[in-house]
Amino acid sequence: MSENKDPHVATPESPELKGEKFVYDFTEGNKDLKDLLGGKGANLAEMTNLGLPVPPGFTITTEACKVYLESGEEPAALRAEVSSHLDALEARMGKKLGQADDPLLVSVRSGAKFSMPGMMDTVLNIGLSDESVVGLTAQAGDERFAWDSYRRLIQMFGKTVLGVDGDLFEEALEAAKEAKGVTVDVDLDAADLKKLVKQFKKIVARDAGRDFPQDPREQMDLAIKAVFDSWNTDRAKLYRRQERIPGDLGTAVNVCSMVFGNLGPDSGTGVAFTRDPASGHQGVYGDYLQNAQGEDVVAGIRNTVPLAELESIDKKSYDQLMQIMETLETHYKDLCDIEFTIERGQLWMLQTRVGKRTAGAAFRIATQLVDQGLIDEAEALQRVNGAQLAQLMFPRFDDDAKTELLGRGIAASPGAAVGKAVFDSYTAVKWSRSGEKVILIRRETNPDDLDGMIAAEGILTSRGGKTSHAAVVARGMGKTCVCGAEDLEVDTKRRRMMVGGRVIEEGDVVSIDGSTGKVYLGEVPVVPSPVVEYFEGRMHAGADDADELVAAVHRIMAYADRVRRLRVRANADNAEDALRARRFGAQGIGLCRTEHMFLGERREMVEKLILADTDAERETALEELLPLQKADFIELFEAMDGLPVTVRLLDPPLHEFLPDITELSVRVALAESRKDANENDLRLLQAVHKLHEQNPMLGLRGVRLGLVIPGLFAMQVRAIAEAAAERKNAKGDPRAEIMIPLVGTVQELEIVREEADQVIAEVEAATGTRLKLTIGTMIELPRAALTAGQIAEAAQFFSFGTNDLTQTVWGFSRDDVEASFFTAYLEKGIFGVSPFETIDKDGVGSLVRSAVAAGRATRPDLKLGVCGEHGGDPESVHFFHEVGLDYVSCSPFRIPVARLEAGRAAAGSTGSDSR
């Protein structure tokens, strides 16, 4: 919280926030009002409160945006409020918006609660017109500056507000530079820019169907509406879906008096970070560009100089900036991302926010801040998340591999990405959907490239730095990115890249290393991540960079393990997977799928069981399977000795163990035509026809199979019990749990449990060993969830099978729907995320919640877990903690993620704070 106690500063409890107040001066808000003022507006207010040099201005609230988006009209009171605040701003600045002799100019900038870099719109230099540009010339004493500012306004306004194709302005600008024989726009003089303004105005009149507005208030009002509208542009909606940002938040609009970085060599603009957002290391990080406005830096259209060079360019401003950066990081207690402008030696702060960072930086920074005493371990745990940890577990390039280096750029977002070179977003999306891995290569990216950036394995640009659009967006998405590779000449029209006489055509494979900035020709082999090596016990914390990261991960994981309530188990079907899971920190096996033990060479034995016509044939088949099953379980119990192992009895659709009906029919028909039909094939075909199901996932499987094939479940229970007895007699500590699948009614469970109890008693008598085997069920049908209170009378534990529960609640066949219409559902916003990826809290989740309550009401000591894919999903883990489960179970490689998120859930997090 801000320490500012000014009674005039609005707080969430202030009466004015409950009324129809839609506009707030920068002196009125604070950083805790992001819901109302957006992140940019709230932080501009906070910096104003701190006494930092912020240009005066005001913020139009997200509530005004919501009214506009819902009704299509601005709130009735908004215009008068804007006028009132504009009057106050003009009085403070001593000049009028757009007046002819000494114009006040303002920027109109978006600012949502969560940072959405480049996704929404900004217009600078509002207030310039054919008259006021003359006044600005006199005021600044610089004709070139005034006309450069005017052409920028027409270009931004035309594209953003009036919907003119931005390429038309770019082409005119490129033509002007070509005619002048220069390569950068700063080499165009005032006369060139005057001609360009005329061209830009003609482009607007022709393509927008109206003249560029000369009334400064009309410019501002139209720009405000354009920012509101930009909330629902395709690129903004796509970014929100990617980052899981709610679509109903709306954006605030910030109207800020202009300060100018394009007034000559003693002016400039830059972006700074209080720590390196790529690595987390402390130091001077950022980009600076002399004689430029802010969009020049972010767009990457001109290559910047490192921020450290500002010290030699303007030491006074540099020293002041360093002090402000220290103040902001101490105040926010986090990495801060800062935008600033220097106007003729005067430093101005235009924005600050908690900066996006790579996964490695997130872990390093969190532990650094603990060591500096700025935050405690609990807060450090909230500064990272499972998605970041998963990124750190991705492979990296093999340092010992033979490589062909093409060039080197700025390491903007780490990772090892390999793919075919593509030079536009459309191709990236198209090829990616066809299963190709691609690297998107551009001179610089812009917001229209977002869909291609999402589709690509990595992004490579020849321009821009760590603060360019490509770098910021890639870091936010966890995508590998190399920027500013100046040696690479990117020709998007010819769809190729040239470097040192070599031509890389579209479709050629390239590899980019976002940790070093190196770009290679061809596919570079990858090796395991050091974080994975750490979890597997093959790496320890030391002094080098990789070990430093491992040390940070170790510290945060150790704290998460200390505070979490949820235990984390693994889904594992064999000893190899079980041992790996144990190395990754698994506290048992939550799901051993025994049907996986019947594949391969054992399939014929299952066919025998299915084809058995008599009790004797069936018993023979079961006797052959028993020792094999027992051996499987002995290995599993040895691997997980001392930890619980939940064994799910056979749960496959029968068609998985039988030949394809079409192939078998053809084989039999051909054999009959040759008069050499195989008797076994004929019997098998009859069985396949008899057991054929239209929807096998809802047919004869799970408990139904155990009830229809006598002795099947008894054989499996016997194998489990005998393996447990043998392990116990060998001084081991087996902790087997027997799970009955696909139960829909308590009567099914009672019948199977009675048989299982009898088999266990027989094994105990035969071995002289007391076994502590528990019997429970998987809750994967809506009816089971709805009758959980009854089922708990016969079950000692529940494990929620959320994969099947999602299918049966939604009426989805996962194998079919994900490929057929899920993409459309995600694009239309019906899903924010696939319900098979993150649990549907309102539907499936409500059944889980009610089943937990009903089950524990019947049996207070009922053990509860989950073993679907959701068990390793970060957001779902928080839900399972909230509803009171005892453990989650997931695949071995997701165990560290589940451990971390279980700790975050226990520490009170409701989601990722590191957007």
TrEMBL record:
PEP-utilising enzyme C-terminal domain ranges (all copies): 551-902
Keyword DNA damage: no
Enzyme class of the recorded protein, top EC level: transferase
Domain (Pyruvate phosphate dikinase AMP/ATP-binding): residue spans on this chain: 74-303, 309-360
EC nos: 2.7.9.1
Residues annotated as domain PEP-utilising enzyme mobile: 436-517
The organism's place on the tree of life at top rank: Bacteria
GO molecular function: pyruvate, phosphate dikinase activity
Reactions mediated catalytically: pyruvate + phosphate + ATP = phosphoenolpyruvate + AMP + diphosphate + H(+)
Annotated InterPro entries: ATP_grasp_subdomain_1, PEP-util_enz_mobile_dom, PEP_util_AS, PEP_util_C, Phosphohistidine_dom_sf, PPDK_AMP/ATP-bd, Pyruvate_phosphate_dikinase, Pyrv/PenolPyrv_kinase-like_dom
Keyword Nucleotide-binding: yes
UniProt KW keywords: ATP-binding, Kinase, Magnesium, Metal-binding, Nucleotide-binding, Pyruvate, Transferase
Cofactor list: Mg(2+)
SUPFAM superfamilies recorded: Glutathione synthetase ATP-binding domain-like (SSF56059), Phosphoenolpyruvate/pyruvate domain (SSF51621), Phosphohistidine domain (SSF52009)
Family: Belongs to the PEP-utilizing enzyme family.
The protein's name: Pyruvate, phosphate dikinase
Organism per entry: Streptomyces sanglieri
